[in-house]
Amino acid sequence: MTAAITLLNHYGWDRTAVRRALSLALASWLAFLVASLLHVHNAYWAAMPVWVIAQPTRGALMERGFFRLFGTIIGASFGIALLHLPLSPYVQVTALALWIGIHAGLTHLHRGVHGYGATLSAITAGIVVIPSLHAPSNAVLLALSRVDCTLIGVIVGTLIMAWLTPESPLTDFYAQVRSVSVDAVDYAAKVVRGSSDKEAGEARILSLISRLESTARVIAAGSLEGYRRQRQVDLLIVASLSAMAAARDIRDGRLPLDPTLPLRLEALRENLSGDALPPPVPGSQGAAPQRLAGAIGDLLAAHRALSCQNSSVTEPPRRRSWLAPHREAGLALRAGALVGGLCLAATLLAIWSGIPALGMVAMGVCVLSLVLSGMSLPQLMAPKMFTGVLLGASLAALYRLTLQPHLGTTTSTLLVLIPVLLVGGFIRNHPRTAALGIDLLMVFLMGSQYGMSVSNQAAVIFRETGAIALGSGIGVAVFLLVPRNPRRQARDAVSKIRKDLLRILQREEEADPQVWHARGSRQILRLSLHIGRAGGEHPAGMLATLNLGRAMIDLHQLGMPTPVGALVNGVLRQEVTPQQGVQGLRSLAEGDQDEQRKPRIQRLADTLEQAGGLLTFGLSRQRV
Predict the structure, then answer these.
(1) Of the N and C termini of the chain, which has fewer Cβ atoms inside 10 Å?
(2) Spatial separation of the C-alpha atoms in residues 44 and 29, rounded to whole Å
(3) Where are the domains of the chain?
(4) Least confident window among 266-280, 345-359, 449-463
């Protein structure tokens, strides 16, 4: 026994990984057993959900299981309804492609595990409709057995694996989020003393905040406490960004500096590091210092709430602050169009040809393209997934040629499945093979149609397993040929920032500083996340754009002169360079006779100058 453990440790499996592999294999085997005893059609489907709902935390496991079941019921209902409508097959597959495209887009409008339900709704609709194009009499049976197997797999998998799956590390996560407040205050102290953004670590802090925020809802999955405290997590993130931006405004606005402010910020940073919460930093004269004091007050309130062990203690924020939802509409449209178009082309070809094997190709295209589309950078995972698909299809063919003809009883079928699932469990739980492990087992179960009486003729076997591999290969090839570009996604975020600034400029009644801060903060986090994925450098002026929006709102309150609005409009529409806009604004400020409006125009010029690096992000040097 000791020798076996030593060998497993040598190859990267510790006791926890071994227990997880064994529980995964056991849950999958029991799900197949239950479905077989209940005589559910396509019983191997019951073993498949177990491999997908397995997650590193208990809450994510339970929530993913719920959304898998919910999405399966919705997708099956749509598929049955579509097949019973008096429509031609071409209209049906067009409606199916539209359904799949919409749900592929929805995965980019819902964060965390919430988008998984949309993925399963689309996949299930495809599994119900596509095979029924050549065998419509089996549509209802196919849909009901799919729902039954999913229910069995989710329930059995959750019951078996939940007790071995650890709870979400909420305490550790909140400690990381609270540390952001320390970094933000440290940044503010350094900046008001005159340090540059690079010296103060702006890019590092923004990258850290964006990574934490992107995982917050995954960490909170399945936890009522996690969802209750998400409001405070968002508040702490927004307050940290606001404090950093306000410190920039104090420095860049050339305001008279209270000599005690840096010292008080440094003392606050030390106290936050030691979990001692002093009173908020009082504001000095001027809008920017007052805004810094307000941001610090919100930061302290959220810090205190996240430090408390009692989740019912949620100190209300001092001001109305929030973070806008994560919505990548451009990416959603592109993903929906790509996946929907692929599925439409594949299913139309299957109908037009009348070849049943092409229906299986179409199913492979739809399923794999849906799974890949939901990933942040699918081109990185596509080769690993296709390797898993090829291995699974090859093992399915080998099983059907060699073992299946000799398995005449349910007992023998269950016994042979044990070593297969054990090997699959270890592959699924090893870091180097986890990416291909899911596809290997899923395709093996699907291609072998395990436990069913299917043809063992070599031509039929290679045609069916080859069709699955071919369809998956087409989906993989498309995502490799048209890779998702994080720099394009970053440019989309910058474009959204410019549009929001134009909205402030053109419609004064919507110029709410809190609304702008919620939207601007979201886009800055989104931009930082995509730049990190692209491996590039953060453009200068990311935080300055928050101050630019505030400067425009402040000037609106006094009445923005038409020439000022025209200049800013030209910059935001990329008709005028930021440098030209800054020079023009400073000339207008010098000539303005209104003593209240003059400094605000000057501040607008200063913030525009600082934000120029972001507003020109992704443009050619000639346009800059």
Answers:
(1) N
(2) 9
(3) 2-167+328-481, 170-307, 520-615
(4) 266-280
pLDDT in tens, 180-201: 989 999 999 999 888 888 888 8
Backbone angles phi, psi at 319, to 5 degrees: -130, 170
Rounded Cα distance between 44 and 55, Å, is: 21
Give the percent of the chain with pLDDT over 70: 90
State yes or no: pLDDT of 40 exceeds 80: yes
Q: Which two tokens stand for residue 67?
A: 């959304």
Neighbours of 510 (CB within 10 A): 12
Considering the domain delimited by 170-307, tell me its CATH architecture. Up-down Bundle (1.20)
- Between helices 434-448 and 378-402, what is the axis angle to 10°? 40
Indicate the residue type of 587: S
Residues 6 or more apart whose Cβ sits within 8 Å of residue 244: 184, 187, 188, 191, 202, 205, 543
Task: Give the model confidence (pLDDT) of 366-378 as tens digits.
Answer: 999 999 998 889 9
Q: What is the DSSP letter of 314?
A: -
Supply angle C-alpha 31, 32, 36, rounded to 5.
Answer: 120
Q: How far is it, in rounded angstroms, from Cα 440 to Cα 428?
A: 9
CB 58, CB 168: distance < 8 Å: yes
Residues 194, 106: Cα–Cα separation, whole Å: 45
Single out the residue of 60, 105, 615 nearest to residue 327, CA to CA.
105
Interacting residues of 438 by C-beta distance below 8 A, sequence separation 6+:
51, 52, 388, 428
Residue-wise pLDDT for 523-571, tens only, equals 898 999 888 888 888 888 889 899 999 899 888 888 888 999 999 999 9
At residue 343, what are phi and psi to the nearest 5 degrees? -65, -40
Segment among 207-211, 275-279, 453-457, 545-549 with least mean pLDDT: 275-279
Distance CA 492, CA 51 (A): 35
Question: What are 136-172's pLDDT values in tens digits?
Answer: 666 777 778 888 888 899 899 888 888 778 888 898 9
Amino acid at 392: G
Closest CA to 546 of 608, 616, 619: 608
